[in-house]
Amino acid sequence: MNTIRHNDRVFTVEALLAPEECAQLIELAEQHGFEAAGVRTAADSQKSMPHVRNNERVVFESADWVERLWQRLRAVDLPELDGHRAVGLPRALRFYKYHPGQRFRMHKDGPWIEDGLSSRLTFLVYLNEGFLGGDTDFRQFRVVPRTGDALLFVHDTWHEGAAVEAGIKYALRSDVMYAPCRSLL
Q: What cofactors does the UniProt entry give for this protein (predicted)?
């Protein structure tokens, strides 16, 4: 696995998953069924905001996949952030599906809170290719989705899931959970 550092807040891990694994995840997500995605606000509620986000999403737990993903990610040099170290992933996996014209406008991600831990990195895995558009835009640069590549970035980094122009885009979305370094001793 090769790591590409786009800047001090954003990096890509190439080929975190094999194309066959990505196809399995797409099939699993489709079996659970997609629905219109909401937007999580500061009050932690889900609101339909199609002017901001109009893609589809499905959320479910898969301990096997969470463990598999974490075992791959922990082999990467994940950054220490504000005296905190990466310790795992949340239980739930979120999958995004974008049809032509769908996007997630420019925004910053917030932390995921679970079991007394808080996330600090967004973790995306691109599950397919064969569509037009759909880049992840960070204003100064864009990341073109490649099957199996993982994109990680500090939550408060401005980014956009650019509109898909043709085809269907699938992505797995999770977070990297962090704990204070002193609690790991």
A: L-ascorbate
In the numeric block, the tokens 């694994």 are attached to 21
Q: pTM score, two decimals?
A: 0.91
The answer to whether the Cα torsion of 87, 90, 93, 99 is positive or negative is negative
Domain residue spans of the chain: 3-184
* Fold held by 3-184: Jelly Rolls (2.60.120)
What one-character-per-residue DSSP string does 1-39 give? --EEESSSSEEEETTSS-HHHHHHHHHHHHHH--EE--E
| Average pLDDT over every residue of 81-92 | 96
Burial class, 115, CB count within 10 angstroms (exposed 0-12 / middle 13-18 / buried 19+): exposed
